[in-house]
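Structure, all two chains, one model.
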Amino acid sequence: MSAAARVRSAHGSAPARVVATGWGWRHASRRRAAVAGVDLVLEPGERVLLLGPSGAGKSTLLGGLAGILGDEEDGEETGTLTLDGRPSASQRGRAGLVLQDPDANTILPALGDDVAFGLENLAVPRDEIWPRVRAALDAVGLTYPLDRPTAHLSGGERQRLAIAGVLAMGPGLLLLDEPTANLDHAGADEVRRAVAATSTTLVVVDHRVDQWIDLVDRVLVLEPGGGITADGSPADVFDSRGAALAAAGVWVPGARPQVERAGRTADHGLGGVLLEADGVAVGHGPVPVQRGIDLTIRAGVSTIITGLNGTGKSALAVALAGLAAPLAGTLTARGVLAHGTAQSQPHRWRSRDLLTRIGTVFQRPEHQFVARSVRDELAVGPRLTRAADADARVDGLLERLRLSHLADAHPYTLSGGEQRRLSVATALATAPTVLVLDEPTFGQDRTTWTELAALVAAHVGDGGAAVSVTHDDDYVRVLGDERLHLSRDGAPVIDRAEACA
Amino acid sequence: MSTAPTADHSMGDDTAGLAPSPTAQHTRTPARDPLASLNPLALWIAAALASLPLLTSIDLVSGATALGVWLVVFLALGIRPRTMLARTWPLLLAAPLSGLSMLLYAQPGGRIHLSWWLVTISDNSIELAAAITVRVLAIGVPALVALVGIDPTRLADALGQIARLPARFVVGALAAVRLAGVLAADHRSLARARRARGLGDSRSLRGALSLPFALVVAAVRRGTMLATAMEARAFGTGERTWARPSRLRRRDAVAIACALGVSLAAVGLAVATGAFRLVGAGG
């Protein structure tokens, strides 16, 4: 297409009409189609929530609508997918896509340059670029100077920046792939407000239905390999298909997930002390963002750490897990946790000493994988501790976490939910006393969520301790025996929620 | 005309630090550094032209002259000694070391002052050591003062618009610069994950082997995601425009001419005083 034609399409910010007829896509490296048999009409300006279990191909459908799946070398297309009657792949810029990870959406070092990037690529003349950049930033409520470094923005601001980056291009179709999964509540609200102010046709993929239900006109459910299996107003779809959707892992509004807390008694605060934080300071690099944290971790208690993005939650988790020294104050292991170690401060322990004492589940599961198969991955810990029953333990965990059929698969090839289950399993494999989890549930479908919460509950019920960093209200409700809230300014607040028992 | 923020990518003090980017910390503003008002490409060309004549000779005169002139010029332009020190300190450590090796191991000549095993300190080696030290500084100090902290966005603008390098390459490299900071954070959390998995002890071969591999995987994943995000914003589909104009102006030409002039004059002075000593001509 000529540059002039692209400029015209960029200006045409009228909402797009989407038509899919028997559309499907198979990635070149896979045998099975990621999406097949999608028949769909979206009228201009419609706002649609796209649901479906993990692996249904929601992201692939978004990629198809965005026209970025590539050509015959990248995969095989069936059927047709058009925006305003023309193939989506031929009209880059007509659809704007925002991905889940704020890090992945930011392209350039300065705020204004990042928004201008798409306009440059559409060959918009320079005089038009900067007014459109300002208008787009206004539309998402970002009021910083244009030279603000993107690295200094919070996660919510980054996602709004990404939306501004595509809005500036004047798209007719806005595509959002779990845009709030990595954000705290305030950040997620910011993003939804920005989306509510747009007038384009909208397709959003998100497990957390309740966050979008007031904003969308229509709900679509995509089944793995089965096309669209439910289509209608939110009320219709959830009335008729609610139970089936919940069973398939969709976060149906209203039905809160329940997890049995076995072995819990009213005096849960009185378990033996395992870990004590005294005046601990943590931060990003050498700069403290949180000081004076006093916290006691006890056996049989699940502790939750909450707070906005950037308040040092993850840094505190890293310190509690013995992976880095706190910037100030002391962390001391007590009781059974300290048995058999020469040092009382976990960050001074040998790496191997951590295995049976403190297990960590990282925010990004793939970061903690070190082996070439799921089975080997689970066996790493038990072999290092010379556990006599290593093989039996591995088999038991494979069974319990529904990973047996993937025992020989490479951990990197698993789906997001499977990777999350495996990362928890690797931590549990050496039966640590304390389990530290950083955002264990984000981006997870309801099925995986429930399994994770049940595992943590069982660990605590058996007399272990759990410390979880989370933004997830349901997780706090189920596992928030004690809650430490970190704020931007002001002392950390500990809240003992007796009602949870 | 556009109201683009062309030159001024001012960076505040890095306080938020959510994901410190490598570009955020050293970038400079015209207010604090007059060299920042020059086109980055002009600075690169000037640095290259300034170093070429000085590479022809090893003598004390040309090196000391060039170094002295540049220090005076930088001070006159209002660049503070502290700033110069911050940009050049690794070289200030390295230059005496290169001199030291000359002092100890250069071909002996003139009076021998000390001789022990392979080490011989002679008149010749003392002279060479001084000349080499000053030369490394004369070439390196002006280049580092001019080039450290160049805003990569402005450099990319110049490479794309003036040097006419392919946008795919220039803008892709610019986006990759931002990823370096993200990868540093990935490396940190990968290393912590090794420790949590019991593989963090120094004698653990498995931990040592799996970390670089995991970092490569993380880099490829980040790169793929970045490419997707860039493509989703219509990158690489054809002609593009540039939001920030980048031009070579009169002052850029003056800077380039000055850079070459100072070096040629310094070498000329060495020739005139007979100190010129062609590289490779023995000594």
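Chain A touches chain B through 84 residues (CB under 8 Å).
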